Amino acid sequence: MGENRDSRREKERENYASKQKSQKQKNRLIAAGVFAVIIAIIGFASYHYYEKLTVTGTQMSGPPGAGKLGDDHEHAAVLVRLFGDKFDFSLPEYQVKSPYIHFESQNGDTIHRHATNVPLGFLFKSMKVGFDDNCFIFPDKKPEHTFCSNEDYSLKFYVNHEKVPSLINYVIKDDDRVLVLYGNENQTQVDNYLKELDGLFIEKK
Predict the structure, then answer these.
(1) How far apart are alpha carbons 115 and 71 in whole angstroms?
(2) 44 backbone dihedrals φ, ψ, rounded to 5°
(3) Do strands 146-148 and 135-137 pair parallel, antiparallel, or not at all (unpaired)?
């Protein structure tokens, strides 16, 4: 009887020790998994933060001739319509790609310029959008996302209702309204887009 009782107690102690060891191993695995997730999140956040501050390969770099970051803060409204479809700058891939000039706060209508002498061409370059006097090209550069002037359709630019030949070197001023069109719009259609542009709220903060 005594031996059986001692034997049972010994087995109970062994089972308890085994369970404790198993639980500790389980806890260590859970902790390791949580730690790995935290490291992954930190790495992901750091990468995207670095990307936001990186333009043309140099952290916090601006275009040649740009003023000191933070020495200016101007705002302008912009509307881009390609065959009538509005280009959506509120998407994450177009938000805060340069500290010098950008879209922010999931707003795709207001351009923020944070330094002097930063042209619109630099804004599009920072977002990897191909943009010059003749073409507007999505970052993926697919043929169906390439809009270049030809004998049937043209890329047109307007600043404050005035048609201009180019926007590449244009530096926005406060309350400017910029329109980019691609298609074969008549004047009535252009006027309607200008009216739409005038109705956009310029977010200043």
Answers:
(1) 5
(2) -60, -45
(3) antiparallel
C-alpha angle 96-97-98 in degrees, rounded to nearest 5 = 90
* Chain centroid offset of residue 19 CA: 51
The long-range contacts involving 17-25, CB below 8 angstroms and separated by at least 24 positions, are: none
Assign 3-state DSSP to the chain and report helix, strand, coil percentages, each to 5: 40, 25, 40
CA angle centred on 105, ends 100 and 111, rounded to 5°: 45
Amino acid 122: pLDDT = 98
Instruction: Return the SS3 of 153.
Output: coil
CA dist 118 and 74 (Å) reads 11
74-84 tens-digit pLDDT: 999 999 999 99
pLDDT digits (tens, 9 = 90+) for 123-174: 999 999 999 999 999 999 999 999 999 999 999 999 999 999 999 999 999 9
